Amino acid sequence: MRFKMDIHARSKPITLTIQKQLNRRRITRRLLTSALIIFSGAGLNLAGWLFSNVVPGAGAEGEPVNTSDLFVMNTKGEEQMFLIRGSSATWSPDSKNIAFQASASGHGLPIKPDPSAATSDSDIFVANVDDLLAGVAGPINLTNNPEAIDDDPDWSPDGRRIVFTSHPVTDDPQISNLTEIYVINVDGTGLTRLTFNAEEQRAPSWSPDGSRIVYMCRIGGGAGTAVEICTMNADGSDRRQLTNNTVFDATPTYSPDGQQIVFLRTVAPGTPGVQQTWLMNANGTGQAQLKQ
Predict the structure, then answer these.
(1) Taking 60 as the threshold, does the pLDDT of residue 56 lie above it?
(2) CB 253 within 8 A of CB 205
(3) Secondary-structure percent of the chain, ordered helix, strand, coil, rounded to 5
(4) Residue 230 to residues 128, 165, 191: CA-CA distances in angstroms?
(5) Whole-model pTM?
(6) Does residue 131 form part of some domain?
């Protein structure tokens, strides 16, 4: 999921849509898929972007066409620099480190055709961006769980925890109703499960004060069930369903003041990929599509 239309995608590029909808500017120009574009106001000694990109030549060498690498670039779209194989990345609050999903073995293949899809042995990793660029240190595997597919990480505002999703390797990759939300300390300790149900949950994202988490929720489970937007406290309590319709709502993220939530909604049911950016109050009221 940021190109932010699949259920595994993360949510930061939507913030760009809100802030820049009256002055939009294209910053990547390529025939390949660029996804998960996330802004950083610090780090790398300049403001810049972190994004995932389909690997050049993927498909030709036996790799799936949605195999992704992570890159950074400056705010003008220049100085694009390769970081590491992986996807669905998130900055630490100080913009020095990233968390992302990647194949634990280095050879796992995406479990579905969506851009930035998790691999069959996906774990959550953290790495220092400057170390990756300098080639002096590699990433650290936080979850290291061969029995599960871990993805969708988001770094907490206080820098202490990472929220992510996890489901068994035996789960259906298309309708993953065994997917639950977890949090873990950035040093790999304190793994805590937050949700307990048979409904697929995706793309968790922290509120600015770290008190709540917003996420995608397949209410009731099942292939024919619409995906909605839900929130809960950071400890998993007080779950609330914010949207209730028959369409696909995806990749939610809070506004910087925590008062609103931006998300994607399918506006032409039955037509894959036809989604638009919507905004609502943090309590689910005032849902409205942002004008193009």
Answers:
(1) no
(2) yes
(3) 5, 40, 55
(4) 31, 14, 22
(5) 0.83
(6) yes
Q: Using CA atoms in the order 89, 93, 96, 99, what is the torsion angle rounded to 10 degrees?
A: -30
Instruction: Please list the alpha-helical segments (H only) found in 113-266.
Output: 129-134
Helix (H, G, I), strand (E, B) or coil at 20: helix
The answer to whether 262 and 271 are in contact (CB under 8 A) is no
* Joined tokens for residue 17: 């849509």
Of the candidate ranges 15-19, 112-116, 286-290, the one whose mean pLDDT is the lowest: 15-19
Is position 30 within any domain?
A: yes
Q: What domain range is 111 assigned to?
A: 12-56+63-289
151-206: per-residue pLDDT in tens?
Answer: 999 999 999 999 999 999 999 888 899 999 999 999 999 999 999 998 999 999 99
d(CA 129, CA 135): 10
CATH at 116: 2.120.10.30
Of the candidates 8, 1, 4, the one whose C-alpha atom is nearest the C-alpha of residue 176 is 8
Q: Total domain count for the chain?
A: 1
Residue 3, in any domain of the structure: no
Q: What are phi and psi of 196, to 5 degrees?
A: -140, 90
Tell me the pLDDT tens digit for each residue of 14-55.
333 333 334 444 434 443 444 444 545 444 433 455 555 555
Strand partners of residue 280: 261
Residue 7 lies in a domain: no
